[in-house]
Design goal:
By secondary structure, the protein is α/β, with parallel strands linked by helices. It has a single domain, classed as Aldolase class I (TIM Barrel), CATH 3.20.20. 30% of the residues lie in helices and 11% in strands. Strands 1, 2, 3, 4, 5, 6, 7, 8, 9 and 10 form a ten-stranded mixed sheet that branches. β1, α1 and β2 form a beta-alpha-beta unit. α3 crosses α5. The protein is globular and about 55 Å long. It starts with 46 loop residues before the first strand and ends in a 26-residue tail after the last helix.
């Protein structure tokens, strides 16, 4: 969202929980459940994002969840949460990774009991807590001792002023950097998530320099989707996004940690084009970090469960295809009409449907929905004009 791959480049939320990157197939951690094993993404997702609660003490300007101080009155109860964990087992091996998001997962009083229950079932767990006063060194040590695979933290500025302005609460920059230090000392794999928007773009190189000395496993840049509170911020233009993606690829070559993107699957195409321009062949591209995310996108490799049990393709694509209270998560993911079409990139509309990169990229389905009202439309962040001829519509009789 941990770990957000997210995904070298899917998932998560736009505030504090963007954990495992939705654009990479390999998290910055591993577990016995075989997260790295090959799978058919139409049958089994790589990552399940569970919005445990809407409650959060922050007021982030780009929060997808529009988090509130108190939990939703209808959020999943403890017994219902255990039922969700049992439903995850129905995917079979290799099991998906479970990413605990919010709101702030630390606001759930049964958090550690639920982590234990997941681990007892063989489910790998990562978490994306909010950088509040509740995120203490002792809490991080407990998370490690309870078997957390990875920690996702958000950093949206190289200094306190810009970061805290986006997070809505003074002191979050200092708390985030302190948590990075503590987690590194505790040996917890860390993913840092950074917002890529008009308000943050100029500061991104400085954020990278700030992170370089730290024990970071992955840095994922989340390309803003204007949903929830995110509507008050300005997304990058397609030209600006293309330039930033080129910078990300160049930076990733010498970075001490993996550099990735979230909600920017067209990064795969940019990276491939840059590698080809240097003479790289198919084998080199397939072995590259960017190849790990091929085919993963909202609803295909990624599934999101809301705090009230709604099953959606992603946190940024708020279209419910069912609810775990009345339906089975695996059945909805595999067979619901919404997911069925998301599994087939050739069914997408406009450029994303006939582009020669559609199987590897497919575009951000969340951004297409935000821009066009259709989850199957063209992702406006991508400038690429396919070299293939678009299919001709049948002539009308009338």
């Amino acid at each position: 969202m941990v770990m957000p791959h997210q995904p070298a480049a899917d998932r998560g939320k736009a505030s504090t929980e963007r954990p495992v990157d939705e654009q990479a197939a390999k998290p910055a951690h591993g577990h016995a459940g075989g997260h790295h094993a090959p799978r058919d993404y139409s049958q089994t997702p790589l990552n399940i994002y569970w919005e445990m609660t809407q409650a959060c003490a922050l007021a982030c300007r780009h929060c997808r969840a529009e988090a509130m101080p108190q939990p939703h009155p209808d959020q999943l109860s403890f017994p219902e949460s255990l039922q969700l964990l049992d439903q995850i087992l129905e995917f079979g091996q290799p099991l998906p990774q479970l990413i605990l998001t919010g709101g702030d997962p630390l606001e759930r009083p049964d958090l550690f009991t639920l982590i234990d229950a997941a681990r007892e079932r063989g489910i790998g767990v990562s978490i994306t807590p909010a950088a509040t006063a509740a995120l203490t060194q002792d809490v991080l040590a407990r998370l490690r001792d309870h078997g957390i695979d990875g920690l996702g933290l958000s950093l949206d500025g190289s200094r306190a002023a810009p970061h805290d302005a986006i997070r809505g609460v003074p002191g979050t920059f200092a708390r985030t950097m302190q948590a990075v230090e503590w987690a590194g000392e505790l040996g917890i794999p860390i993913q840092i998530n950074t917002l890529a928007a008009a308000e943050t773009a100029a500061d991104i190189p400085a954020i990278y320099e700030l992170l370089r000395p730290h024990r970071i496993a992955r840095w994922s840049l989340f390309f803003l989707i204007s949903v929830g509170r995110g509507k008050v911020l300005q997304p990058l233009s397609a030209d600006q996004a293309e330039g930033l993606m080129a910078w990300i690829f160049e930076t990733s070559r010498n970075s001490p940690f993996l550099v990735a993107t979230t909600e920017a699957p067209s990064y795969r195409r940019v990276a491939i084009e840059m590698m080809r321009s240097e003479g790289a062949g198919g084998d080199a591209i397939r072995k590259s970090g960017v190849a790990r995310g091929f085919g993963i996108r909202d609803g295909h490799g990624i599934v999101f469960v809301s705090n009230t049990g709604e099953i959606c393709p992603a946190g940024f694509l708020p279209l419910s295809a069912g609810n775990i209270r009345t339906q089975r998560l695996a059945d909805v993911y595999r067979n619901a009409p919404l997911f069925d079409r998301l599994h087939d990139s050739s069914s997408f509309e406009g450029r994303c449907g006939y582009c020669e990169y559609h199987a590897l990229c497919g575009g951000s389905r969340a951004r297409a929905y935000e821009a066009t009202g259709s989850a199957f439309g063209t992702d406006p962040l991508c400038l690429y004009e396919p070299s293939v001829t678009p299919p001709q519509k049948p002539a009308s009789d009338g």
